[in-house]
Amino acid sequence: MWLRRQLPDRVLDTMVINTGEYPYRKNDRVAVIPLALLGP
């Protein structure tokens, strides 16, 4: 969130990588992505 405030025109999207099972997007425009979905 700090980086988005510092560079509002350069940050396109924000994501957090976790060990959960399902991806979702929080209300503050943060995508939560399970690590298993990023590769084989």
Structural commentary:
The chain is built from one helix and three strands. It has about 40 residues and is an alpha+beta fold. It has one domain. The mean pLDDT is about 90.
Q: Could you give a short description of this structure?
A:
The chain is elongated.
Describe the protein's topology.
Elements: H1 2-6, E1 14-18, E2 24-25, E3 30-34
Global outline: elongated
Query: What about the largest sheet?
Result: 3 strands, mixed
What is the percent of helical residues?
Answer: 10-25%
Amino-to-carboxy terminus distance? 29 Å
Count structural domains. Answer: 1
Task: Output mean pLDDT.
Answer: 92
Note poorly predicted spans: none
Based on the structure, what is the oligomeric state of the protein chains? single chain
Structural class: alpha+beta
DSSP strand (E) fraction? 25-35%
Number of strands: 3
- Kindly provide the radius of gyration, computed on alpha-carbon positions and rounded to a whole number of angstroms: 12 Å
Count helical runs. 1
**Helix-strand string:** HEEE
Keywords:
40 residues; alpha+beta
